[in-house]
Give the backbone structure.
Amino acid sequence: MKKFRGSALVAGAAAFALTISGCAAPEELTPTQSATSDPETTLEWYEDLAPQITVGWNDIVDHFNGSTAAGNNVANSLTAYLTSAGFSYYNNDPALVQNTDFGTYELVSEDPLTVKYTINDGVVWSDGTPIDGADMLLNWVANFGYYQNEDGSFVFEHAAPSPTLASKLPTVDGNSLTFEYDVQYVDWELEFGVGVAAHGTVMMAHSDITDPAAAKQALIDAVNGGDDEFMAAVADVWNNGYQFANTPDNPLVYLSSGPYILEELVEEQYSTHVVNPLYNWGPKPKYERVTIRQIADSTAAIQAVDNGEVQIASGQPTADVLQLVQGLANASYQSSEEAAYEHVDLTVNNGGPFDPASYGGDEETALKVRQAFLLSIPRNEIIEKIIKPLNPTAERRTSVLFIPGSEGYDTAESYYSMYLGTDDENRAMAQELLAEAGVSTPIDVKFWFPTGNVRRTNEFELIKTSADSVGFNVIQDDEPNWEFTGRVYPEVNLHDATIFAWAATSLAVSGDDQYLTLGGPSNWTGYDNAEVDALLEELNVAVKREDQVRIRLAIEEKLAQDAYNITIFNFPGLTWWDNSVTGVEENGLVPYYFWNFWDWTPTAG
Amino acid sequence: MLSFIVRRAAATLMVLLVASFIVYQLTAISGDPLLELRGSRDPDIQFKIQYLTEILQLDVPPFIRYFYWLGGAAGCLIGQCDLGISVSRGEIPVTEALSGAIASTVQLITLATILSIIIGVAIGMTTALRQYSGYDYTVTFFAFIFYSLPIFWVAVLLKEFGAIQFNRFLEEPYIPPGAMTVIALVLAVAVSGIVGGGLKTRVQSFIGGAVLSVVVMIFLNLTQWLKYPALGVPGIILMTLLVASVVLVLSIGFNQRRGLIIVLGMALVAAAMWLPGQYLFFYIQGPLGILLIVVIMAAIGVLLGIIFGGDGRKEISRAAGITGAFAGLIMAIDEALQYWSEYLSLIPLNNGYISTIGAVTPAIKRQENMWLSLIDSYAHLILPTAALLIISVAGYTRYSRASLLEVMNQDYVRTARAKGLNERTVVVRHAMRNALLPIATIVPVDITALIGGAVITEQVFAWAGMGALFIRGLNAVDVNLVMGYVMIVGLMAVIGNVIADLLYSALDPRIRVS
């Protein structure tokens, strides 16, 4: 035992000796390194970039070709928006803004409609390859469905191929591309741009081609020379070669033409974008890195901003969410109006109360009943009780075609002057109209709303109470699956009135015919007005903006006269951000609050 | 045994088949995957509806569509899984989505499971030993409260107080005297409750607990330890002593002097090995370094036990080896903490370090430094782990308390006492081991339940695991994705039960599977 104690003592002493001698060591033994090197650049705007900003969204990118049917969604378009430049973008008016630092487009001739797109010299992909006509050509053949399989399906699986718009191959001339539309197409400004890189797609499809310039030339030759086999391989990559849940190994997949380049993508977690050292054509961002984190839960996104992990987030407001956001200590928020709007439509061809056939074909009587019903919808009360708690600045929307604040809205609203009174005034007027019409009350109205949607259920309750008081008998006719949307003319919608929202993601002016023309795929009301049809046709070929506004106002006037429907409010949106960043602004259209990411500025200090 | 497994496998297949059919039908009729598109006014929306109808085969009734799916899923039996594509996940194959999700879920629940077993069993067994004491009643009270708390609420509160407020507190990490008094009193009551005994012992332990907590808190205030945690050599010695005491209690007790000196001496060895450890971590980067230090320390412990252990060298070297391995882990923690300041400078948080969402900080992952990533992982794991812990610890506490109480009333425990063994030996050697049997059979079932059941925790903490995948699938009426989830979770549940059965028969000789 004595021997044992001795050795323990020796061990202990040795240990402490070592300990004391080692106290000075850790500094030099702790490797301090910085693994990430900053991008090399000669551009001035790189000076003084803030290191990073993190923003939240409910989903992140998983497809780098947003033009494909598979990749066409909002999350993909956000990364695309950060990593690409284009001829134009939406501001938050909303209006289309041109980016002439990138390139220009012009109308060469109005008839036939011929347009020329030119990309500025020095505008390059992030690997240094110039962006030019070949890139636009690739997008052209995809966008206009130039290649079709024998069964009529498209070789390039574009999200919305439009072979009827243009079929004559464009002329490529260096940086520019000129092509001719087969029809007068009103939305030509929104139809076309640059998609994924031509040389990247070709080089991934044909591994024997390694030179970008050769790849571009091969593509142009193949398109012009009719080499379908070559193009089939390109199309295969275009369709399927851009889908990645994690950072792609091949940088050709995420070539950037914009301020940022994808740096890292982690499935279902985040994507990080670092500034593009070559970018010099368009607005300059103020952060070196932008990270988009996937946060599906609104409460989680609010707490993440509170905790400083995320600087900007947005979501659909509920009363709870708004209250939490208002309670944030060091953050700001902005309520806003999204592009989707709530409206009540009336079915006019189902033998119901709004169908002239029910009154022996008496249009006047049916019109008065429709007007009376629309008047009896308590719009002010709905906004006061249901929308204001979510968006304190919410206002009524009274126009089908015009977004509040956009050019023409005020005139459009004036066509609905009879509906603009208070709810009580409107109800009184509704009673008068019913008396004038001489119909026996109460009138049964089968009213549809989506079952299970709390907000719409509440709206229904308010509408029922109000409409019943003026002489209607509103019958709950809800079902969850929107089955009436499958009933297109000549089938008829069995509901007399429906409430739902139209969502719009762009300022396109065409496309209204799908719900305003009898037989259109979304016309579930049976609305049919020859004058409106003629105006819509005129609109589709009205290339000039002032003509577009004039024609759309004329359509709106007809809709108001016919008591087609009544719009109630725009969906509320909510964006909140940490006060360490300024310049954040909400936008109702895709890409939402990202639209001015270059204005996001770190607060001084 | 073999026939048992074969029979169970056949039953499993049947259960999965029926379950998959039912879930498929229910999911398919639960909603309309095109619902969102129906309300869109986009000009190209008709094309999109047509496209989705085609790839999802929406024109085929679910009853028949199920068999298309089954055809692909049957491929799993021969190693060619085709569970379809997930439209809500950018059309990636479901198998790919699942593999990523399982990995994150396992990452999330591993620590929570281990900790909840250790903590739950420890608390449960101590309450059993102090049955009907104030401590027992308090633990029972809180166990029932925690057991019945809704996890989404716990999680949100944890974020508010465990992350946001705590991080703000860290801006100036100073515990005021008032709070200090309250905390010290609460801890002192807890300590005296656990120690138990007569009035004198209780008073002593109360005072001891109070003084110790005040000293610790003053230390925290002075060193700002909560903001800049570090161990250093004193920390390593203290932590190793702590581990050594626990190991001693559970193994050879405090009465063998040789054992006592050698096991506690491991603290000194750890201190002596600190500097060589620094060199080791410097030259051997990556997980190998951690593994190496753990092995070396364990080897030293075993060696010391063999050389100086005398008659009890087998038990002593085992205890010293285990203590050494833990000491190695503590040294690794110390190494990681040396990167703390660098970590704080790299993360985007202004104050503090506790994260509320996700699993990693992008800025840290870019550094590709194992130690920083380690800190980062734990800064992200701590809250979800705590949320899962609070609820599952409560369960384990109840199980182990009941189990130990039952064993303590057995005849062989009375026999052990009668032959004059001291209380520690009776409890640790004779009672505890047998009381652990039923717990061991709960664990596999519990783990499988966690894999499928962390749905809400994952949602609240933006964790990209199985639960998040399930929710996403349900919201988008993405039948393939939901089915992938159901298959995995169903399979896990069945396998967990089989393992539990086998484990029971392996541990308890009275039970045979046949």
Summary: The longest strand of chain B covers residues 85-86. The CA atoms of residues 83 and 139 of chain B lie 46 Å apart. The mean pLDDT of chain B is 88. DSSP finds 22 helices and two strands in chain B.
